[in-house]
Design a protein that fits this description.
The chain is 29% helix and 19% strand. By secondary structure, it is α+β, with helices and mostly antiparallel strands. It has one domain: Metallo-dependent phosphatases (Purple Acid Phosphatase, chain A, domain 2). A 6-stranded mixed β-sheet has the order 3-4-5-10-6-7, with helices on one face. α5 packs across α6 and α8 runs antiparallel to α9. The longest helix is centred in the middle third of the chain and has 17 residues. It is globular, with a radius of gyration of 19 Å. The two termini are 35 Å apart.
Length: 334
């Protein structure tokens, strides 16, 4: 698409998801604290898309015990204040990683080249936060530092988890796309170096790519080429109980796999299974706010199209996208 993004008629419908100002309140959607969390809500790459985040929280209500956020609350979308306030107010500091866009507010991403739209929206968000919520700006300045990008090790349930925004090296220039086989699969092999203790089951949780995926490497494997993709069907559990796994929950606020719906994961650390969900949200609200504020057409188009033709190719050659999910193409491996 070129020029100002046109909002298709099908995006004008009411999906029945609570609106930004509607009921229930955000606090009502969140679980009460538990001593030993079992079910982890994995969120990543919200990117200033408050309607998408609100829809995900409403959809996930009652399904999880604890939130883990993998980074990038700001950048691209028209609601940076709402999203940043949610991170500050509702997610404890030891339950999230900082993403490159979060760090970009303060120019803290070494040797990173921003695209035109990304750089423009980061500068816009920095100005808006400073002008309208100086308290949030001060909080972000304290918390958005490179060391918070990950990796962070935790043990929940029957597995050991390593959380990071981009990868185990905390290198924001490297993306663990399915297609980036010589980054993605070696990172999974390296996971065992980061586990607190030798483990039969370990999970690498990373975002950054905006592309959902699941890779598995047997515990005894000593060659990254033995890592294999596993098919994901939306809303259906996948067992992650035998070996080491790379789990990417996709993006809440700017999916790039050709599916415009928000994406998130529930990881059950006792049952050792993961479920990817796709959630429709009030996309028209986000697009209209972008139009009203003069956001770059490219950013609006990406929300409508669920990415670009280039980003959709990042699933290949290991996955093909279908309506029901993303299907592993094991025959495509080297």
């Amino acid at each position: 698409m070129s020029g100002a993004a046109q909002i298709p008629s099908f995006l004008q419908q009411d999906f029945g998801i609570p609106s930004v100002t509607g009921e229930p309140s955000i606090r009502d959607l969140l679980p009460e604290p538990v001593k030993e969390p079992q079910r982890v809500l994995l969120l990543s790459d919200v990117h200033g898309n408050w309607p998408a985040l609100h829809a995900v929280l409403a959809h996930a209500q009652g399904r999880y015990d604890i939130i883990w956020f993998l980074g990038d609350m700001v950048g691209y979308g028209p609601y940076p204040l709402e999203c940043l306030a949610f991170l500050c107010d509702y997610i404890p500091a030891d339950q999230w990683c900082a993403g490159n866009h979060d760090l970009g507010l303060f120019d803290r991403v070494p040797d990173f080249t921003w695209s035109g739209a990304a750089g423009e929206t980061i500068r816009r968000h920095a100005t808006e936060i400073q002008d309208r919520r100086p308290d949030l700006w001060t909080w972000a300045d304290e918390h958005f530092v490179l060391s918070r990008g990950g990796p962070v090790m935790r043990t929940y349930g029957k597995g050991q988890l390593v959380f990071t925004h981009a990868n185990l090296e905390n290198d924001m220039n490297t993306y663990l796309f399915p297609a980036a086989t010589f980054h993605t699969r070696p990172n999974l092999l390296r996971l065992r170096e980061f586990l607190p203790q030798p483990a039969e089951t370990g999970w690498l949780l990373a975002g950054h790519t905006h592309i959902p995926c699941l890779f598995h490497l047997p515990t005894q494997a000593d060659d990254f080429t033995q890592a294999r993709p596993i098919s994901i069907r939306w809303g259906e559990p996948v067992m992650v109980n035998q070996g080491h796994y790379y789990i990417n929950p996709g993006s809440v606020g700017q999916p790039r796999d050709g599916n415009q719906r928000a994406c998130y994961v529930i990881l059950d650390t006792i049952g050792q299974q993961a479920i990817w969900y796709r959630v429709p949200y009030e996309l028209n609200k986000t697009l209209m706010q972008m139009n009203a504020l003069g956001y770059p057409p490219y950013v609006r188009d990406m929300l409508i199209d669920g990415g670009t033709e280039r980003t959709k190719q990042e699933l290949l050659p290991f996955y093909q996208s279908e309506v029901s999910g993303i299907i592993a193409l094991d025959s495509k491996f080297l």
